[in-house]
Automatic annotation (TrEMBL):
Protein's organism: Thermasporomyces composti
Transmembrane segments: 12-31, 65-83, 90-112, 132-149, 156-177, 183-204, 216-239, 259-282
Family annotation (InterPro entries): PAP2/HPO, PAP2/HPO_sf
Xref: SMART domains: acidPPc (SM00014)
Annotated Phosphatidic acid phosphatase type 2/haloperoxidase domain residues: 91-198
UniProt superkingdom: Bacteria
Protein name: PAP2 superfamily protein
The entry's keywords: Membrane, Transmembrane, Transmembrane helix
Length: 304
């Protein structure tokens, strides 16, 4: 039974990894390689000027926290937590997740992804910005923390981590640093690495998982919230597409703000859904120590 459960979990994680790769390709193709996608991103970014003065202080505080030094400190802390729980393999995989996610983002941004000139007004194609580095840092640290904390804290860590990743992604949009698709792509990169890290852990685990370590209600909460927010974002994207062909500077403030709000909601929805996927399998990926020992005595006695 344990080997069968391991096999199903591994298969799900492989499918999740493939799904994240497919989602990343889709986001890249739509929002970088098509004029309509570039237009939707540009309108959302242009809408960030509405009400910026009210959130500028918060945005600055959120983004100023993230730096190379803070990433190193957070990564070291994550490794320390895992080692304190005597999880050497977990420590290595969690650090690999953080490093791999951020290296992948930098490679995609500066080497692999190029934004063509498709004639979209104010698209600012001179510098590529996909994926968002700040969002990758926040999301990768949040996911790694969910992996290394004790089971009883995972639900809370997942909710707070999704909120922090979403807040950072929206902050990059509000600051005018990134388009919505940049933050969404960063979250997908982290989700893909989380699936890969989970696959490594489930294939090397020694303890059996316990259903008591799962957080089904929190998973449903995050997944439901994520899907609802993405539905709203899709509606906002459809509204923006109705203005395709119109100059960005000619759009009304209401249209600009609707696009900006839709982009922000899309980022938040992606963060919630990504974290729900992580939390749904973490009890299988990182089972509690001594899970075998907690089985009822009858389960350990073979029938005569």
């Amino acid at each position: 039974m344990a080997s069968r459960t391991r096999g199903w979990t591994a298969a799900w994680l492989v499918a999740s990894l493939a799904g994240h790769i497919g989602a990343l390709v889709a986001v890249w193709w739509v929002f970088v390689r098509t004029a309509r996608g570039q237009f939707a991103d540009t309108v959302a970014l242009a809408g960030n000027t509405i009400g910026r003065a009210r959130v500028e202080h918060l945005v600055t505080q959120v983004l100023d926290v993230i730096s190379v030094l803070s990433l190193l400190v957070a990564t070291a802390l994550i490794g320390f937590i895992a080692l304190a729980r005597r999880r050497v393999v977990l420590a290595g995989v969690a650090v690999l997740l953080v490093v791999g996610s951020n290296v992948t983002t930098q490679f995609l941004k500066y080497v692999a992804i190029h934004r063509p000139d498709l004639g979209v007004e104010n698209a600012n194609i001179s510098v590529n910005s996909m994926p968002s580095g700040h969002t990758t840092v926040a999301a990768s640290v949040a996911v790694a923390l969910v992996l290394v904390v004790p089971p009883r804290l995972r639900g809370l860590a997942a909710v707070l981590g999704a909120g922090y990743a979403a807040l950072t992604g929206v902050a990059t949009l509000s600051a005018g640093w990134h388009r919505p698709s940049d933050a969404v792509a960063a979250l997908i990169v982290v989700g893909g690495w989380a699936a890969g890290a989970g696959l490594l852990l489930v294939l090397t685990r020694r303890d059996d998982p316990s259903p008591r370590d799962a957080h089904p209600y929190t998973v449903v909460l995050l997944a439901g919230t994520g899907l609802a927010l993405l539905a709203v974002a899709a509606m906002a994207l459809w509204v923006s597409d109705q203005s395709f062909g119109t100059g960005v500077l000619e759009l009304s403030r209401r249209r600009l703000f609707a696009a900006y709000a839709g982009g922000a909601v899309g980022i938040a929805g992606t963060a919630a859904l990504m974290m729900a996927l992580v939390l749904s399998t973490v009890h299988e990926v990182v089972p509690s120590r001594g899970a075998r020992a907690r089985r009822p005595p009858d389960a350990l006695v073979k029938p005569s």
